[in-house]
Specification:
It is built from four helices and no strands. The protein is mainly alpha-helical. Bound molecules: heme C.
């Protein structure tokens, strides 16, 4: 495979590897895992949530009544969010579809949301 055809994810993994090598073992592992998880969460959010919710740090929600992900706290308890996503009880309101996620997907999505919170 040519070097320039690396996907974003592959490049991300390489830079994570670089971080791992450069920093102290335990701290490096924790940080790299957290950021990779958040990256996966961003992919999921892009696919399933971005049609209504603002994702990044400054965007406005395409659906004005849907809160921007960076403003979920304190409105939503992110500690419980992963479980809620797996149970599919994020419903609550007619405009929003119910999602039932696998544990890993739910944790990734929450890691991404957490990385965005303003406060
Ligand atoms: C079709 C549009 C739509 C999509 C797609 C959507 N949402 Fe929502 N979501 C909404 C709206 C509208 C609200 C606000 C409803 C309200 O406040 O009554 C909302 C509210 C929420 C809330 C706050 C709930 C609460 O208890 O206050 C969370 C968390 C949330 N959405 C997460 C997500 C996640 C995660 C995804 C993707 C997996 C997603 N949403 C996809 C429309 C959507």
């Amino acid at each position: 495979m040519k070097r320039c055809s690396l996907t974003f994810k592959q490049r991300l993994r390489r830079s994570i590897l670089a971080v791992l090598v450069a920093s102290s073992p335990l701290a490096g592992v924790a940080t790299a895992q957290a950021s990779e998880l958040a990256q996966q969460g961003q992919d999921i959010a892009q696919r399933l949530c971005a049609s209504c919710h603002a994702l990044g740090r400054a965007e406005r929600s395409p659906m004005p009544t849907a809160p921007a992900f960076r403003r979920m706290e304190p409105r939503v308890d992110l500690d419980q969010m992963a479980e809620r996503l797996q149970d599919g009880i994020i419903a609550g309101h007619p405009e929003m579809p119910t999602f039932v996620m696998k544990e890993h997907e739910a944790r990734a999505l929450v890691a991404y949301m957490r990385s965005l919170q303003d406060n």
